[in-house]
């Protein structure tokens, strides 16, 4: 059976509006996602910027599909290697981040879909990378908003 999604969940001890701000405000993204956006996310538009992982900077490209403050952010990222162009044949990963109030806390659910479109020989590595990355990123988000 093909794995097409990864789901990561966390509870953050902060109000949903605060978590939403950290999730969508370009000034705050650099703190937990190490992402510098060229402009804020906007539904129906491509976002560009630079993400700074541990090794070297990489270009960021995403297409924002849904922004329902402070509840849901959905965007797609192309499955291309650095330097590859986006074409009509490009496969995309969709990241759906959902925020739900849980008392004074916020329950965060991140669902990444589209993994079945990844090359079969790379799929397990991609799933592991996405799972590990989002676990780490949610811990960073949590540390930032719980300060």
Automatic annotation (TrEMBL):
InterPro entries: ASHA1/2-like_C, START-like_dom_sf. Residues 13-145 form the Activator of Hsp90 ATPase homologue 1/2-like C-terminal domain. Belongs to the AHA1 family. This is SRPBCC domain-containing protein. It comes from Paracoccus pacificus.
